[in-house]
Design a protein that fits this description.
The complex is a heterodimer. Chain A is an all-alpha fold. Chain A contains 4 helices and no strands. Helix content of chain A is 76%, strand content 0%. By secondary structure, chain B is mostly helical. Helices cover 70% and strands 0% of the residues of chain B. Chain B has helices at residues 8-16, 21-41, 45-61, 71-89, 98-102, 108-115, 119-122, 126-137, 141-151, 157-164, 168-186. In chain B, α1 packs across α2 (21-41) and α2 runs antiparallel to α9 (141-151). The interface between A and B is large, with 38 and 59 residues.
Chain lengths: 153, 190
């Protein structure tokens, strides 16, 4: 329902005209609407002029500029904070990649040391082939070496 | 073909993006009607001016938070709250027409007379305008509020009911009583 229809509804709603015949109700409503419009026009003429003067508007314009500057500052701070968060995330991600790489190297070194230890069983030991070393390494990595008796390749 | 007028919400968005000039357009669009509403609702001309300025200052400071609905209804709500706060602080409450009767301050009629005629008002006699202003000021506050919101701010009755926290039929009824009173009071003049 738009404003005009509300106006039309106002008369019967407020004056309990629902008992009147439809045509009579419509006529009353139309009269009421005309009166409301006329009085509204009169009131606008009586109260509406003059429009707000420059002395009133100037401080409002200044405030608008201040608020816009404040919003810009806030947006700048937010952008800065977002950039800092991103940099922090990237740094911490890079750090964890480097750490993982370092751990992998240590593990590899550990494995090689273990192999050397195993093959260093004295001059009587048979030479270890690359294939055997590879097999031993696989077993070491799967944690089987500890369970095997000494001397078993 | 001319570009369509930006909606109130478009202007608020422009303000959020950093266009302070959007407020100028909003002021031009809603300033005069708010001033007219306040001239009818405030205790005197000075309070109407204060209310106008404070309402807009509050609106501008919170404009970035305005999301939806009627901008004019939002503005009216701010203005009404300001007037209520002011009335609470002021003891005793001064009625709109108090000035003309007890000499406590400038009456609405005196303020209007001092404002000078507009082109629209010039079509009517000064006496008729004074009489209308006096009659509007003499309405019971609840009826006057609805009448001013409807005729000056051009709010829908649904918006008026929402702002005042009353049922729609109550808003319609108050408007009806206000119009009936004004019509009857003006009848002998016609």
């Amino acid at each position: 329902m738009n404003a005009k229809e509300f106006d039309i509804a106002a008369w019967p709603a407020a004056d309990d005209a629902s008992g009147l015949p439809a045509a009579e109700r419509a006529r009353h409503a139309a009269v009421w609407c005309r009166e409301a419009a006329r009085l509204g026009e009169l009131a606008r003429a009586a109260l509406g002029d003059p429009p707000p003067d420059e002395a009133l508007l100037l401080p409002l314009r200044r405030e608008a500029s201040r608020q816009v500057a404040r919003l810009r500052r806030r947006r700048g701070v937010m952008r800065l904070a977002a950039a800092a968060s991103l940099a922090l995330l990237a740094w911490s991600a890079g750090d964890s990649v480097a750490e993982r790489r370092h751990l992998r190297r240590l593990k590899r070194l550990d494995n090689v040391l273990a192999l050397l230890e195993l093959s260093d069983r004295g001059p009587s030991a048979a030479p270890v082939t690359r294939h055997e070393l590879s097999a031993r390494l696989a077993r070491l990595q799967s944690g089987l070496v500890a369970e095997q008796p000494a001397g078993v390749p | 073909m001319t570009a369509p007028e930006p909606s109130d919400f478009d202007l608020v968005e422009a303000f959020r993006r950093g266009d302070a000039g959007a407020v100028d357009v909003l002021l031009e669009r809603h300033g005069p009607s708010l001033m007219a509403y306040l001239r009818g609702a405030a205790a005197n001309a000075e309070e109407a001016r204060d209310a106008f300025q404070e309402t807009w200052l509050r609106a501008i400071r919170h404009l970035h938070g305005f999301r939806r609905g009627s901008f004019r209804a939002w503005l009216t709500t701010i203005a009404r709250h300001w007037l209520i706060d002011r009335a609470r602080r002021r003891r005793p409450v001064v009625s709109l027409d108090a000035g003309s009767e007890d000499g406590e301050g400038p009456a609405l009629l005196e303020q209007l007379a001092g404002d000078g005629p507009s082109p629209a008002a010039a079509l009517m006699s000064e006496e008729e305008l004074r009489r209308v202003a006096r009659l509007v000021a003499g309405l019971p506050p609840a009826q006057r509020e609805v009448f001013l919101m409807r005729t000056q701010q051009e709010l829908s009755f649904a918006e008026i009911a929402r702002i005042l926290g009353i049922p729609l039929n109550t808003a319609l009824g108050r408007m009806h009583y206000a119009v009936t009173k004004l019509r009857r009071a003006l009848e002998p003049e016609r």
